[in-house]
Design a protein that fits this description.
Structural class: alpha/beta
Shape: globular
Oligomer: single chain
Number of helices: 12
Distance between the termini: 79 Å
Length: 399
């Protein structure tokens, strides 16, 4: 019996080694596989054709630099799936989407229902539905091929900006394929995504050796950084508006915790002068509540914020800017009014765009079902808004 077990163990080890060294364990053949880290989607309406730009991870030595152009491959097709398949046909690499964390939509895709452009990623099991979804102000191919000092390839820099880091989470309205799809198919039929803008830096000149002669040529390379603080809003997949950076912040506070948030308010009277003031905010209480009272829908926003003056665009005594300094009551009142106006303007904007960004209809259906049939067609337009903002000096509130 002992002899049989030893012989069986030897056979199993031999089979395992055979499978391992013939790659039958499913290990990735790096020479034949394109590990895609980001996808850009551009749609040419006249030709009814997609251009799919795939940014791939290229292994590199520490002494070499891979440009965005070298890391970008494209495919064209009548559908996203066909364009993706053409990438493999044209390059000889199998496109692997398991590590794709970013899907970037070009400006041409925003002219119609974008669900037509992204529904492949909902149906396919080749890519995670947690991939970040974002739109840009140009062709997605151009944005992904942009050179940036922030990282080796542009998509990694954009992912860092959109990541859910606690220090900046309230500045960016990040979303993913799953979350956007849930909003699209909900009763509210609304959604949002961050809007990526490229910011051009000063042109950087480089000396590169060229040709066989070994002569140096001067090469100019445009570099960009990215801003994602504005937010596009959608109704039934169609872009119907855009939130400003400040509106995005107070939209985000509903679903995220605001910690060490900086906002700039211009024209505040501080120390006897009109100047721009940088406020540091920490939330101490928040309430975003939709309910039906006496047959009428209402939406209540109640924010209590702890404030401190971080900086001003003027020369003021140092004692006025220390973290323990008491903020004048009129300055706090002015900040309250500015924030209240920002939130009210945001709510007016989404009403006019018929974009149920705060899910009034979905909440009505779930928690006020017997009022749903009566109110569902007019709930967004008829909802009364009540915004209350209270600002206190942070150190005073802690004492």
């Amino acid at each position: 019996m002992k002899f049989i077990r030893s012989k069986l163990s030897l056979i199993l080890i031999s089979v395992a080694m055979l499978l391992f060294f013939t790659n039958d364990f499913g290990l990735v053949d790096i020479e034949r596989t394109a590990i895609i880290v980001a996808l850009g989607i551009d749609y040419e309406e006249e030709q009814n054709q997609y251009t799919l730009s795939a940014q791939i991870a290229i292994p590199q030595a520490s002494s070499t630099t891979i440009s965005n152009e070298d890391a970008l491959v494209t495919g064209k097709g009548k559908t996203v799936a066909a364009a993706l398949d053409n990438i493999g046909i044209n390059t000889g690499w199998y496109p692997m989407l398991s590590f794709c964390n970013l899907i970037l939509l070009g400006k041409t895709t925003l002219k119609s229902d974008i669900m037509y452009h992204i529904n492949y990623f909902i149906r396919s099991d080749k890519i995670e539905d947690s991939a970040i979804l974002a739109a840009c102000d140009d062709k997605a191919e151009e944005v992904l091929s942009s050179c940036t000092p922030l990282d080796s390839i542009s998509s990694l820099a954009i992912e860092k900006i959109l990541s859910k880091d606690i220090a900046k989470s309230d500045k960016i309205a990040d979303t993913d394929v799953k979350e956007f799809s849930k909003g699209y198919y909900s009763k509210s039929e609304s959604g949002y995504m961050p809007f990526i803008r490229r910011i051009k830096l000063e042109t950087k000149s480089q000396d590169n050796k060229g040709g066989q002669s070994g002569q140096k040529e001067n090469k100019s390379e445009e570099q960009y950084i990215f801003d994602a603080t504005e937010t596009l809003i959608f109704k039934k997949g169609v872009n119907v508006g855009k939130l400003t950076s400040l509106e995005t912040l107070f939209f985000n506070i509903k679903r995220k915790n605001s910690i060490d948030t900086l906002i700039e308010l211009d024209g505040i009277e501080f120390n006897g002068k009109k100047t721009d003031v940088i406020f540091g905010l920490n939330e101490s209480y928040k309430k975003y509540a939709f309910y039906v009272k006496d047959g009428k829908p209402r939406f209540e926003v109640n924010l209590h914020l702890l404030c401190q003056i971080e900086d001003v665009y003027d020369s003021v005594p140092v004692k006025e800017l220390v973290t323990t300094a008491e903020i004048e009551e009129k300055v706090l009142k002015e900040a309250e009014n500015r924030i209240k106006t920002t939130i009210e303007n945001m709510l007016i904007k989404i009403k006019e765009a018929d974009c149920d960004l705060f899910d009034f209809k979905e909440t009505l259906y779930k928690f006020h079902y017997f009022s749903y049939e009566k109110l569902k067609s007019t709930v967004l337009a008829d909802t009364e808004i009540d915004v209350t903002i209270k600002c206190k000096t942070e150190q005073s509130a802690k004492m």
